[in-house]
Structure formats: C-alpha cells, structure tokens
Specification:
Elements (H helix, E strand, L loop, with lengths): L13 H8 L10 H8 L2 E2 L3 H10 L8 H10 L4 E5 L3 E5 L4 H22 L4 H15 L7 H10 L8 H11 L3 E3 L9 E3 H4 L8 H16 L4 H8 L3 H10 L4 E6 L2 E6 L12 E3 L5 H4 L10 H4 L12 E4 L2 E11 L2 E8 L5 H18 L2 E4 L1
Parallel strand pairs: 11-12
Antiparallel strand pairs: 1-3, 2-3, 4-5, 6-7, 8-9, 9-10, 10-11
C-alpha cells in the first residue's frame, strides 16, 4: 500500500477515476450487454432511467440507443430481476446464476421475518414455483397479474404483500426472470428458457468475481461501499477482496483505504463535462460514502433532496443540482434545477448533455 506522501493519489482524483471506471468519461463499450457485464449488475428500478444509465456508458453514436437497449432486453440479452440487495437490476444471462446463488441465501435470511409474518413457508414457495413454471413453460411470457391468477388457481393466497414476496422468492429460486415487454407491460419468463446453460462458479469464485467486477467498474471504493452495494457480510466482502488483491491497488486517502483495479490509470481532471444522470444511477448508488461527489448536507435532506433519488446534474464529477424531463409530441423538454449559478461554460456543457439525451431517445430537444 502506498500513502498520499508516496504518490500523487489524492481525494481530488476520486471522482475523475470513478468517472473513468464507470465508463462515463471515456466509454469503451459499444453495446448494452458489454456495459452490464462490466458492472456485473446495474440498478434498474426505473427501467427508463436504467436504459439511459446504459446509454451514457456506450461509446460511438448514441442516436436511437434507446431502441437498441429495448431490443436487447426483448431478446433476453439483458435480464431484469431482483438480485444483490435485492432490488431490480439488469444482469446478463451469463452472470445471473452464479450471482443469484451468491446473494440469494443472505437475502432469504434477511427476508425470513417477512416470510413468517405473511405466513409464507417453504411448502408454499414450492407450490408457487411449480405453478409459475407450468404457466410460463414453452416461452409463454406472462404479466404479473396473470401469474397471480396462476398462483391463486394453485390455492395460494396472494393478498397484500404476500404476492410480491412470492414473486421475488421465485426469482431468488432461479425459477423466473424478466420476459419481453408487451407494449408497456413487463412480463415474466422461465429462467431455464431465458438463460439456459449458464456458467456456474463455486462460492469462493463468485465472491472473487464480484469483488473484481465491483472495484474495476466502480473504483476507487472502500470496503464499506462494496458491502453496501452487494449486500454481502463484511466477512464475505473482505474475503472477496483478499482473493483478488493481486488485481487491485490499495490507496490510503484521508486516512481511509480505497481499492481500484490495477489497470486503472491516475488521470488528470477531465475537461469540463456534464452528465444528466437518471435516478438510482450507479455513479451515486454504488457507494455508501458519496461525499466525494456531493455535499453531505444534500444527502441528509432526505429523499427529496438526496441526489440518489432525484435526477442529478453532474459537472466534472460533482453533483450541482437536478433536472426533469417532460414530453410533448416528438420533443423532450428538459428543465434544470441547479443548486448553484452556472457559468457560461457550465451551461454549455449541460446543454450538450441534454442534446445527447435527446439523441438517445431520437427526439427533438427543448432545453431550459
């Protein structure tokens, strides 16, 4: 480990490095599958915002990239399921099984209280999984409401929160995952049909692989950040790091240990560049400590003021406000809410980011 006095690594370089590892400052992937694979899993609670998260991280022309991602999702090249903490994430078919097998036991343990409170047990989960498997067989993609009816026909009570946990348990048990959308409605599919022949890893191999992916795609980051994002125990997170230490660099910054990939270069502060990020973007959500990118006072304001839950404007790696979008005919209307006055160069950078978003959607832009 090198100290601050022994190298040029300082706190000011955290955000340029993260912009680079997160594929925001210099995206090198040209399709959404490679982006999702790079990250391991990408937060996708808001499907439309999550597509923009991927689009910003794809190099080359962004024109109609929204359609490209929709097609990849419809074809099952990208899956969307509850995994990791668990919340909705994009994940590739190649990674879904080992990642689910690593994280599901802890999720089930944490959810055990809710299972018992709702009267859910292993016998009920076996019945619901069997009902879902039968209803979805032969690529019969079904909406949530249709799956609810399948569970009810099997004699399972689905009132209130019970059905949400029944569905999530079927995902954790590797029975169901996302199917293609029908119009604007999401469907479910059999995982065996959507991701056949997936590779499997031992538990140690999975811990090592998740640690490698996390610190390569999100470094520099701390142990506590990895624990927060992954939902792993501290002991498991430490074990994962230990197994891939030879591929990582350990840095001491302001008395705290950060890890990043050994292939990541120390970068100069990039030219003035703005990003209009969606809510729940990995640039903020992937870290427990977000103080390098945003004033901690903004985070303590709660969900309304917390940039994780709004759509943040990021300039030079720093959150400086939020933005909103609206649509009319063939135009996207973008409205800014900066927390500080913007200079002419900053306004120009944000306008360029707005243009990229309009191109991504294939729409005209109205910007204010």
């Amino acid at each position: 480990m090198r100290t601050d006095a022994e190298n040029n690594m300082t706190r000011l370089q955290i955000t340029p490095l993260r912009l680079n590892s997160q594929q925001l400052s210099s995206p090198r992937f040209k399709n959404p599958v490679d982006v999702v694979e790079w990250f391991g899993a990408v937060q996708a609670q808001d499907y439309y915002g999550a597509k923009w998260s991927l689009g910003q991280r794809m190099g080359g022309s962004s024109i109609r990239t929204d359609d490209v991602i929709d097609k990849a999702f419809a074809a099952g090249k990208i899956l969307r399921t509850h995994i990791v903490r668990p919340t909705w994430h994009f994940v590739t078919p190649a990674d879904i099984r080992w990642l689910m097998r690593l994280t599901a036991p802890r999720i089930n343990a944490i959810s055990g209280h809710y299972y018992r409170k709702l009267g859910l047990d292993e016998a009920i989960f076996r019945r619901s999984n069997k009902a879902f498997a039968g209803a979805l067989r032969d690529n019969n993609y079904l909406t949530r409401d249709t799956l609810r009816k399948a569970a009810e026909r099997a004699g399972i009570v689905t009132e209130g929160l019970r059905f949400i946990h029944i569905l999530e348990r079927a995902e954790l048990d590797e029975v169901i995952c996302s199917g293609p959308r029908v119009g604007k409605q999401f469907t479910y599919a059999l995982l065996d049909e959507r991701a056949p022949g997936c590779k499997d890893l031992t538990r140690d191999e999975a811990l090592a692989e998740l640690a490698r992916r996390y610190f390569s795609s999100r470094g520099p980051a701390m142990l506590q950040d990895f624990v927060w994002w992954s939902g792993l125990t501290v002991a498991d997170a430490k074990a994962g790091i230990e197994m891939v230490k030879h591929k990582l660099v350990e840095e001491l910054i302001d008395g705290k240990i950060y890890w990043l990939s050994s292939s990541t270069s120390i970068l100069k502060t990039p030219a003035l560049t703005a990003h209009l990020l969606p809510a729940y973007d990995e640039y903020l959500l992937a870290y427990k400590d977000r103080s390098a990118m945003v004033d901690p006072l903004d985070i303590r304001k709660g969900s309304r003021g917390n940039p994780v839950f709004s759509q943040p404007i990021v300039i030079g790696g720093q959150v400086i406000g939020s933005w909103k979008r609206a649509f009319k005919k063939d135009t996207v209307v973008i409205t800014l809410n900066p927390s500080i006055p913007l200079s002419k160069s900053e306004t120009k950078a944000v306008a360029q980011a707005a243009e990229r978003y309009a191109e991504f959607l294939g729409l005209l832009l109205e910007f204010s």
